[in-house]
Amino acid sequence: NAEYMGTAVVHLFRLLLRSLVMGLLLWVWTVAGFFSFLALIVSCHQMYCHVTNYHRPVLQRKIMGILWMVPIYAISSWLSLRFVNEAIYLDMIRDCYEAYVIYLFLALMVAYIGHSDQDHEYTNEDKVLKVLEIKTSIAHPWPFNYCFRPLRCDRSFLRACKAGTLQFVVLKPATALMGIFLEWRGVLDEGHMRWDRGYLYLSIVRNFSVTLSMYFLVLFYMSTKEALTPYKPVPKFLCIKSVLFFSFWQSVAIAILVKLDIIHEAGAYTTENVSVSIQNVLICFEMFLAALAHTYAFSYKEFEVGGMQAKRRPLLRDVFDVSDVLADFNEISPVVLPTGFQPKVVAVKNRDERSTKRQTEEYTRLV
Question: How confident is the model over 72-91, as pLDDT tens digits?
């Protein structure tokens, strides 16, 4: 009887502990959902304000694309808390869009310099090249200036900046798909820095790739700082950088805590489930702060034009239009993507005859 009573007490204690864990998880999920909802409301209001003042599509469609980062991050992270076993697939959506946002920021800086007051639809890259030529050359930031020669600010430099950001657009989804494959094979072990598991090596590749893309963003800003000053690029860059910085390095910190056995399994949740859930909870909170920061950094007020009606156009198609990124990818890649568009001829309609001739020759070379 004593043994039976002891077994019953242990079983009752486990049920109580499991109930406490499930109750805590439900409370955390509810609070995280509340902050995600606030972030969604703030971001949607900001995008609505841009829609009602949609006067410069070449700039605002890139800004709208960046603003979508907060809803995508918040919703995917919140759903990952509910569907823990499917979190790796939901996180892949978030990670792929993260890479696209970095490209959008470079494209936005190029558009700020190359846009015209007469034509609000297209970017004239010849104006960007004229700004770069004023700088002549640019030294690498410390300490790389001791290792590499200064870069000439010409067309090849602009292409290098595009290549530096676009490589992350390619590698991030590739590593996300590789992570899904390794998870299926049972050798990913997300959150564990082990030499015999894939998470460590995927983290190294992702970290190198995002660092390289950020480095080229900094180089482009350094070479066009004076021309970009009126558009306040630093707050915009910090908004994007902070999201990427916190999301990556907090995942590294969580992995270290898992390695030290500070974070471990809880109830029916494995250690991997717990570490991924902590990451997603933090992102839900951070997205609310990011949404507030976006209202300042990507304000619609600079596009307000009194008495002028906003352009009516298919907004979602315009915001998620990937023709620019495909055109830039075909410009730097020896392989032309099998799409129906013509790079640098239809996608960018420069009125300058010299530019059009150059682009036609470039398109002929690519084909």
Answer: 999 999 998 888 778 878 88
In the numeric block, which tokens belong to residue 359?
């682009």
pLDDT in tens, 234-279: 899 888 888 877 777 787 788 788 777 777 776 667 777 778 888 8
Chain-centre distance for alpha carbon 320? 14
Distance from CA of residue 165 to its chain's centroid? 11
* pLDDT surpasses 70 at 34: yes
User: Mean pLDDT over residues 130-137, rounded?
Assistant: 85
pLDDT recorded at residue 39? 95
Per-residue confidence (pLDDT) for residue 320, from 0 to 100: 64
Neighbouring CB atoms inside 10 A of 318's CB total 15
pTM: 0.78
Compute the distance between CA of residue 54 and CA of residue 217 in angstroms, rounded to an integer: 26
Phi, psi of 265, deg, nearest 5: -65, 155
Confidence of residue 220 (pLDDT cuts 50, 70, 90): very high
3-state secondary structure the chain: CHHHHHHHHHHHHHHHHHHHHHHHHHHHHHHHHHHHHHHHHHHHHHHHHHHHCCCCHHHHHHHHHHHCHHHHHHHHHHHHHHCHHHHHHHHHHHHHHHHHHHHHHHHHHHHHHHCCCCCCCCCCHHHHHHHHHHHCEECCCCCHHHCCCCEECCHHHHHHHHHHHHHHHHHHHHHHHHHHHHHHHCCCCCCCCCCCCHHHHHHHHHHHHHHHHHHHHHHHHHHCHHHHHHHCHHHHHHHHHHHHHHHHHHHHHHHHHHHCCCCCCECCECHHHHHHHHHHHHHHHHHHHHHHHHHHHCCCHHHCCCCCCCCCCCHHHHHCCCHHHHHHHHHHCCCCCCCCCCCCCCCCCCCCHHHHHHHHHHHHHHC
Tokens of 317: 């198609």
